[in-house]
Amino acid sequence: VRNRKIASAMQTLQAMHLTELSSGQQAARRRVLDHNTRSLPRHFKLTTHHARTAMNYYDHTKDTLHVTKSIALVLQWPFIHAAEAFLAGLYRCWKEQGPVSLESHIYQLLYEVTVPGPGRSLEFLCYPDCLTLLQRPSAIEELPLCDYSLREMFSLLGVDCVLQLFTCLLLENQILLCSSEYQRLMLVSECMTCLLFPFSWPHVYVPILPASLHHFLDAPVPFIMGLHSRENRINIPSEANLCYVDLDSRMIQLPEELPSFPHRTELTAELA
């Protein structure tokens, strides 16, 4: 932050915050003794005795104030590797401070790189020495776009679990995925729907279900939904046709009376 007025205001806000925490009220004292403040170093334990010392941890006349920022790409198509390469190029641009500014790279992506049509490909420069390829399959003649690794999905779940999950998918059961990592939810959801080719999943598809929409799990229709396990606790519906998969522990709960996949033993041996 280069604006000195903003830096000075932040120092004032920190001083006000510390004054409130170190007030003589009994409730404030208990809160001070139990918690650290996020604006101070982690090793610093705030007490009434150290309140004045804490105010000197940030001095806008000597210290530099940093603000956390992030850049995210929102894509209509799952070009995962291209997005990763572009973000890596932005990081290199910021780190190396090259002749081309960060804003120029972002402008190029937004206004000069167009998504190729079905059956076509496009190669563009993410960074001076990093060429990236965008390729869209045609609607019928080619395999669907899958920029996730099938090998990674099989390594995550195992062959038996994948075959059981694929059986539920073919029978249009309700499928609920749960994981502590968003990437795993997208990985399994995208890979499983791609394995349906030449068929497609025509029902509800929400790989990452927001916390505010958890009531959608009560929908009496086939679906593929993903839940982040670190969110608020919810009641998993106990439906007869629900397939619940914990991606972190490889635990799968199958629907009632699920038939076995044809030639499952031979197929498992070939995939293992």
From TrEMBL:
SMART domains: DENN. Pfam families: DENN (PF02141). Residues 1-272 form the UDENN domain. GO terms for molecular function: guanyl-nucleotide exchange factor activity; small GTPase binding. This is UDENN domain-containing protein. It comes from Homalodisca liturata. The lineage of its organism: Eukaryota, Metazoa, Ecdysozoa, Arthropoda, Hexapoda.
